[in-house]
Amino acid sequence: MRLGFLVDLSRCMGCMACAVACKAENDVPLHSWRLRVKYIDQGEFPDVKRHFVPLRCNHCENAPCERICPVSALHYLPNGIVNVDHDRCIGCASCMMACPYNAIYLDPITNSADKCTYCAHRIEVGMMPACVVACPTHANIFGDLDDPESEISKYLKNHRDVMVRKPELNTRPKHFYVRGSTVALDPLASERPEGYAIFTEVKFLDHIGGH
Amino acid sequence: MIGAEVTFDVALPKVIWGWLVSTNMWAKSIATGTFLLGLYFIKRYPEQDNFFRKWIPILGIIFIGITLLVTVLDLHHMFRFWKIFFHPHFTSAVTLGAWVVSAFVIVLLISFWSWATGNKKLFDRIMIPGFILAFFSTIYTAGIMGEATAREVWVFPAEMISMLFSAMIAGSAAYLIVDAVYGNVLQEKIRRELGYILFGSAGLEAAMFIGELFFAKMHSEFSYRVVEILAFGEVAPFFWIGLVFTFIIPMILVGIANEYRKYRYAWLASIFALIGLWLIKHAWLIAPQSLPLS
Lengths: 211, 294
Description:
The complex is a heterodimer of chains A (211) and B (294). Chain A contains seven helices and ten strands. By secondary structure, chain A is an alpha+beta fold. Chain B has one domain (19-290): Formate dehydrogenase/DMSO reductase fold. Chain B has helices at residues 19-44, 49-74, 83-86, 93-117, 120-125, 127-147, 156-181, 188-214, 221-232, 236-260, 264-286, and one strand spanning 4-8.
């Protein structure tokens, strides 16, 4: 079994239901995000377009975070999920330096690394990830990439415009986007003017040295 | 349709590894550089080996101590540091580094004991393992940077060579400072050779940095933008002052010192080199963290 995710960006309407469901399900603290939706505006009036891009851990088959973690706090589950053991984490932040998708954060309450686990605790009891359930347009498609009859496998087979983020890094992500674009998926393809963030000031627990 | 702007996103923390990690790399360069160069001078000039047998452990223990202190302080769970030894993950350069540096600390403690008791044979027996451990202690951070896939500008072989040059710069500078502070106790030929090592390693490392700026093939837009940040961004003062302090000023001053036998200039060059080394390492560490990854 290889669990994977696919987001059909033509269906996403940026409602943030997935982000809110993720926060509630996983008790994600303020200032931290396992899943977020970025808005990108492209063009000049009247020829404009808005892209919505849900961003979460890509659960790479060749995960840099798993490789660099000195204590195996980040590890693979048999179903392909890259899981995190909070009690094992020493808080060195190497995983944050290694992840090319900015998908890992240091939880300001537990001081341990954390990230999207595809809701591994729900999958274990046969439930879908919270973000999949909450999505009103079924933009999030989740399933077993090894099962040719799964919805995600059929989706991947039937669409030719499948993209992953930063394929050149050979991380082999198991998180796909359909009907995406460079502007949507490449963070350097868009400008970031001042004030784009929801919270302009990020507060973390006091630590020595820039965390 | 032209232009694209992010109009809505969450705020994300920017700098993950800050000055503690810069200090780690800087202090480690001094500890391992003095060890590697010390071994060389003991073998080459056995008539003055007492100087190096004394200062190898003293400088090594002080600066590897600083390295370990800032490493542990930088952990968000510093009291779980022991897990690196009891739950090690050996694909991680962090784990390999922790193990190698720990073994290097043992070598330094033995060398201290050897100096304190006057037992030269004891130190002679650990020279080869000490050399290997000092070498790998120098380069393991390059492995960590290489494994930091997100920061594409850090490439393992180049980082490794750069760190070896840094160790040579730091080691020679540290010995020149100690020599000056203790009233020029070293023979002139040793002092001159330390100057040449500082001059040569500064020149070679400068070539690597300048090559990265002007001649390197940029593998990605990320790398290109990092170089822009280094040259013109918020870390540019660290980078340019570091470049001048670490490479240009020491090369000029050491050149004057060795040419005109005015060795106080070598001492001054060493001070500049050690200050500059921290600045340039800090710039190199921070710049790739200044760009959005998602």
